[in-house]
Amino acid sequence: MELAVYNIKGEDTGKKVTLNDEVFALAEPNEHAVYLDVKQYLANQRQGTSKSKERSEISGSTKKLGRQKGGGGARHGDIKSPVMVGGGRIFGPKPRNYGFKLNKKVKALARRSALTFKAQNNQIVVVEDLNFEAPKTKEFVNFAKNLKLDGQKVVLVLENQNKNVFLSARNIEQASVYTASELNTYRVLNNKTLVLTESSVAVLNQF
C-alpha cells in the first residue's frame, strides 16, 4: 500500500511511502485480539485502590445490644453489625490488581489489526518529518489546519522524542503525540486520524 507524503503546509510533496501489507493490510484482521488488547490496556489503568471497612475493622463496642430472646424484635449482635447504621459492609471492595496476562503474539496481532482497520478507513495521513523551532501551541494548531484535521481527535506518531513538538501539542485536548515504540492498540484506535511521519513509518513497518 502506498500513501502520499504531505509537508507541514498540507501540500502534496509528490513523494510516496510504502506501508507494509503484513502490518497495514492484513487479509483477516482479528477483532477479538483487538478487544483483548484494549481491555488489558484499560484494566492496567485502573488503580484498584477501592476499599471499604468490614465488621472487624469498624471502631465500636463489642457489647451485645440486647437480650437474645424476649425483646420483641430482631436479634442483634454488637453495634458493628452490617445491619446497623455505621456498621461494617458485607463483601465490600478490597484493593486488587485488575491487570491480566496477554501473550506477546496476541498483542502484536492486535496492533497490526488496528493499523489495518485505520488504513481500510483511510484514516492514516503521512507527513514529512517535522520540527518546531520552539514549543508553540499555535504552530501545532496551524499544522492541523493545513492538513484539514482541526477539530478532529488526532494522534501524531514520531520516530523519536521531540520536545518542541510534544510541548506544542500538550495543551490541545484533541491531540496526542507518541513515538512509534509507544504506539499500542488503544492509542491507534482512540482517535479520528493517525498522522505518521516519514521516519516513523519505517518503525511501524516492523510491527
Number of helices: 7
Based on CA atoms alone, the radius of gyration comes out at 27 Å
Reported for the largest beta sheet, the result is: 6 strands, mixed
Instruction: Tell me the strand order in the biggest sheet.
Output: 2-1-3-6-4-5
Order of helices and strands: EEHHHEHEHEHEH
User: What is the overall pLDDT average?
Assistant: 94
> What's the CATH topology label of the largest domain?
Ribosomal Protein L4, Chain: A
Quickly count the domains.
2
Structural class: alpha/beta
Large-scale geometry = elongated
- The count of strands amounts to 6
CATH architectural group of the largest domain: 3-Layer(aba) Sandwich
CATH superfamily of the largest domain: Ribosomal protein L4/L1
* Proportion of beta-strand residues: 5-15%
Uncertain stretches: none
Distance between the termini: 15 Å
Q: Tell me roughly what share of residues is in helical segments.
A: 25-40%
Write down the CATH class of the largest domain.
Answer: Alpha Beta
Region (Disordered): 45-78
Subunit structure: Part of the 50S ribosomal subunit.
GO molecular function: rRNA binding; structural constituent of ribosome
InterPro entries: Ribosomal_uL4 (IPR002136), Ribosomal_uL4-like (IPR013005), Ribosomal_uL4_dom_sf (IPR023574)
What's this entry about, in short?
The protein has 7 helices and 6 strands.
What do you see in this structure?
The longest helix is centred in the middle third of the chain and has 17 residues, at 104-120. The protein folds into two domains: 2-47 and 99-204, Ribosomal protein L4/L1 (Ribosomal Protein L4, Chain: A, 3-Layer(aba) Sandwich), CATH 3.40.1370.10; 52-92, no CATH class. It is of the alpha/beta class and 207 residues long. Helix 2 (31-45) crosses helix 3 (104-120) and helix 4 (137-146) packs across helix 5. The mean pLDDT is 94. Strands 2-1-3-6-4-5 form a six-stranded mixed sheet. Helices cover 32% and strands 15% of the residues. The two termini are 15 Å apart.
